[in-house]
Task: structure prediction
Amino acid sequence: MNLPLNKLPIDQLFFLIDFLGVFVGALGGALAAVRDTRYKYDLVGVTGLALASALGGGIIRDLILQQGPPLAFADVRYLITALAGAVAGMIFASRISKSTERAIIIIDAAALGLFAVSGSTRAINAGLRRLPALLLGGVTAVGGGSLRDVLSGRTPKIFERGELYAIAAVFGSAMFLFCDWVGLTREISTLAGTLGGFGLRLLALRFHWETRPLRSEP
Result:
């Protein structure tokens, strides 16, 4: 969940990915809820987890910034897009093929980079310094999935050993902030940050780069 069209650095492309990311976030949240073997979620449960996955990160970011209501509530298109993703996830949960799931993963990786950059962009525009902007970029990108995990009674996956996700988001945000710091245009900085987060996430998936637990196994 990110900036509306009239505030996006590269408007048409990023506007499309912005709402596509919300849709994919809701779709992924609904799929995870429907396929959950630990709990049997009903309509309310699946819809709630899908909305949390799609909109949670942006809502957390906007509440921290305290600059009016979160965009998810200020612009009804976000809610409509998220609900559409939730419905699609419930309808097609048993029909989605492996090739379609791979496409969803790629779109999610693209959304990860964009969400990280847009979170940092909103933080910079609000007058925050670069370190808080870096953290808000990461929160925007991974907050929704973490909120979904908490509501599901689990430790957020980003805190456990696994393929790079939060690190990819922070990397994309860091690239954007660095390019902005050295004086590159906002369009170039945004593109560099988005591609950085997206690219690192895809490389992690391709080569199975994973973080390691700090506690050594006996």
About this structure: The helical segments are 11-34, 43-65, 71-74, 76-92, 98-125, 130-151, 166-181, 186-207. The first helix runs from residue 11 to 34. Residues 6 and 144 are 24 Å apart (CA to CA).
